[in-house]
């Protein structure tokens, strides 16, 4: 039996990268998945691919910064699969801009998606899980929620916020059977990383390579399943050794 047999998992950013790799692994562990993304083309194509392999999958287009869109995701998930057990709160954006050139609009947009959006999805998840009597939330932060780096002030501030939001929610709902933990990836080979940056980021990493989305998915499965049953409010840093330096 799979580690998520019969569970319903909502995955934001589910059309690409870490979210898509996690959806594949979750399905192979018996879960039904709700793929949530802004990118409708990729999301629908991935939904069709999963369904063609007999998996139960639903794509819902949503912007995680919209309260209305987020509410609709949970309505659709419950209408289609009857419940929500797991939420991988993972959609995010990132761009490198020196702080003295960082427009307030870009700051606001990054914090809006990477922190406010994570809050909106977490709040909607908790509302559903309180009704159901429990659940599991995995937020994607970053190793840059733990350490700083030049040129990513807004991203790093937002991801640091996600790490502490995770601690706070873990504490707040510990007695309600809702576990909340964060995944903190290092540099992972997904479309969020520009092709021309990959070599230099690999060089900056002690293991001298980028991580693979599938390696993140295994960590998410640990956090989402009963394998991590005594863990809440915590962060799992999976970064090829970067933050050990
Ligand atoms: N790849 C890395 O090196 C790395 C490192 C640390 C943390 N992360 C985090 O991992 C998460 C997933 O990133 P990824 O590497 O898989 O990148 P990705 O670009 O492949 O996937 C991100 C997905 O999120 C979606 N998305 C973006 N904004 C959205 C919004 N407002 N509403 C709904 N969907 C939205 C995108 O359409 C995309 O499909 C992000 O939170 C990112 O910050 C990535």
UniProtKB/TrEMBL annotation:
One GO molecular-function entry: oxidoreductase activity
Keywords: Oxidoreductase
Pfam families in the cross-refs: adh_short_C2 (PF13561)
Record bears the keyword Oxidoreductase: yes
SUPFAM superfamilies reported in the protein's UniProt record: NAD(P)-binding Rossmann-fold domains (SSF51735)
InterPro entries: NAD(P)-bd_dom_sf, Sc_DH/Rdtase_CS, SDR_fam
Biological process per Gene Ontology, one example term: bile acid metabolic process
UniProt cross-references to CDD domains, sorted A to Z: SDR_c (cd05233)
Family: Belongs to the short-chain dehydrogenases/reductases (SDR) family.
PANTHER family: DEHYDROGENASES, SHORT CHAIN, ESTRADIOL 17-BETA-DEHYDROGENASE 8-RELATED
The name this protein goes by in its record: NAD(P)-dependent dehydrogenase (Short-subunit alcohol dehydrogenase family)
